[in-house]
Amino acid sequence: MKLFAENKTQIMVSTTVIEVGVDVPNATVMVIENAERFGLSQLHQLRGRVGRGADQSYCILMSHHKLSSDAKQRLDTMVKTNDGFKIAEVDLQLRGPGDIQGTQQSGALNFKLADLTKDERIIRAARVAAGLVLDEDPNLTQPQHQMLNCYLRKLFGETVWSKIS
Prior knowledge:
Layout: H1 2-5, E1 29-32, H2 40-47, E2 58-61, H3 69-80, H4 84-95, H5 120-136, H6 146-156
Parallel strand pairs: 1-2
């Protein structure tokens, strides 16, 4: 990497370790093999290693010819946009947000009515309202919060809720 960064060699073959901390303005071409195996965030990070200088740059995504529908959508997204926010939105739609209370980093929340990407305003309002309730009554012991307390215990057992959740 040092020789490449110092422009003493023109080609570098690397694992995805290249994703972090490499800033070589003269890097203009990146080929990502098996691109269908990577997530959108990682593809976006990898692509960001080229095009840091003044020269035209290219990121070539190579993939297997048989792709799942999610893989097709990921690669199509990478071809259509460089906007990290749009990429993150598609990633959220494909992978889901994960477990609100736990450590699972992907998967659906199984909301009955809400859609995290379309209902952002109402979800933010609900979060603010929930925060106000928890500020007033963190353990939901007040009479006006008993129904909510019972519902959450039925849904999640004795799990302790916090403002983070």
